[in-house]
Amino acid sequence: MAYYARGGSSFFLVKRAKERDIVLFGGDQGPEVLEKGCSAPCVLRTCGPAHLFEGLRPILEARGPAALRPAP
């Protein structure tokens, strides 16, 4: 969360074994994920790594070029 607070793009990535899916939460959602677990609203829910990267690309592009650079 500190990286996110300094302007960096960060995410919480959760692989759920029972449901066999991958859930992506925004870097600002740490407290909510801690409280609600995977029932918290997510940025992306997908069924595997290939779909994860396909889904992540538009999210990062929407955040602009700064999303791909390291935070100060």
Brief summary:
The chain is built from 3 helices and 3 strands; from the N terminus they run H-E-E-H-E-H. It has 72 residues and is α+β, with helices and mostly antiparallel strands.
Key attributes of the depicted protein:
72 residues, alpha+beta, flat
Task: Detail the topology: elements first, then pairings.
Layout: H1 2-5, E1 11-16, E2 21-26, H2 30-36, E3 44-46, H3 49-63
Antiparallel strand pairs: 1-2, 2-3
Polypeptide structure, described:
The protein is α+β, with helices and mostly antiparallel strands and 72 residues long. The protein has one domain (2-68). The protein has three helices and three strands. It has helices at residues 2-5, 30-36, 49-63; strands at 11-16, 21-26, 44-46. Strands 1-2-3 form a three-stranded antiparallel beta sheet, covered by helices on one side. β1 and β2 (21-26) form a beta hairpin. It starts with a helix and ends in a 9-residue tail after the last helix.
